[in-house]
Amino acid sequence: MYVSFLLSCDFVERSYLQFLEAPEFRNVTLKCLAEIAALSVGPEYDPKFVILFAMVMTSVNRMIPPSTNIAQAYQNAGDSGQELVLNLALFLANFLSNHLRAVESEQNRDVLLNAHLYMVKISQVDEREIFKICLEYWLKLVAELYDEIQSLPIGDSGLLMGLSLGGSNGASMLNGISLRKNIYSDVLSNLRLVVIERMVKPEEVRIFWSSQPARPNVSKLGPYCRER
Predict the structure, then answer these.
(1) Which of 38, 19, 40, 39 is nearest to 30 (CA)?
(2) pLDDT in tens, 4-39
(3) Residue 164 class from Cβ within 10 Å (0-12 exposed, 13-18 middle, 19+ buried)?
(4) Is 223 helix (H, G, I), strand (E, B) or coil?
(5) How confident is the model at residue 172 (pLDDT cuts 50, 70, 90)?
(6) Across residues 76-100, what is the average pLDDT?
(7) In terms of Cα–Cα distance, which of 130, 104, 129 is closest to 116?
(8) Where are the alpha helices (DSSP H) in the chain?
(9) How far is CA 10 from the centre of its chain?
(10) Smallest Cα–Cα separation from 37: which of 87, 94, 89, 122?
(11) Which of 99, 146, 92 is nearest to 120 (CA)?
């Protein structure tokens, strides 16, 4: 009964969404919505979560347009703006971790991909806590998509390897099979770039040889620059 009331459209609109876009209330409102998104309840509440998600993402698109470079905006923002990005990461990670299947239907595809666009952009923010929040969700999603492939009635391990590498023989076997990973093909492509960019870079070492028969002079240049 409590959850049903909490997720009722009128209550959400009156108590949360009217404050979400107000600069002085948006952070505390988004924190509350992140807590609601973390609720793990029965599938009978899925329609209410879908409506909540669509409402919140509509407001998010107005507050932070999809074309925004969130990583750069975060660096230039004040404490309130940076907190907004953190709270948005929490909301998206909580909702998608607990209610992803509810918004994977065809009619909700646009808002689903829109939310993942924001997750990819937020993952580019150079802040450890935010990246950790995003990474935990990405690991969960990728594990589910991998398990889906593993559960297919295909016994040839070579075929599975072909699928993972994009082999044409493996892909041809999947014609007519609806896979969740197909929904996220563009998302995963962008995610690969983000992960590569955020990988720990090795130190570059330069060795100077002298004419003297001594040990080489080794100097560390430090981490690679991002521009490299």
Answers:
(1) 19
(2) 656 665 666 666 777 888 899 999 999 989 999 998
(3) exposed
(4) strand
(5) low
(6) 96
(7) 104
(8) 2-6, 9-12, 18-20, 26-37, 46-63, 70-76, 79-99, 109-123, 128-150, 157-164, 168-172, 180-183, 185-198
(9) 29
(10) 94
(11) 92
Q: How far is the CA of 58 from the CAs of 53, 64, 80, 142, in angstroms? A: 9, 10, 20, 26
Query: What's the distance, CA 140 to chain centroid?
Result: 10
Q: How far apart are CA 162 and CA 130, in angstroms?
A: 34
Return the C-alpha torsion angle 101, 117, 48, 102, nearest 10: -10
pLDDT tens, residue by residue, 43-52: 888 888 898 8
Alpha-carbon span 92 to 103, nearest angstrom: 12
Separation of alpha carbons 177 and 164, rounded Å = 16
How does pLDDT run across 89-137, given as a tens digit for each residue?
999 999 999 999 999 999 999 999 999 999 999 999 999 999 999 999 9
pTM: 0.78
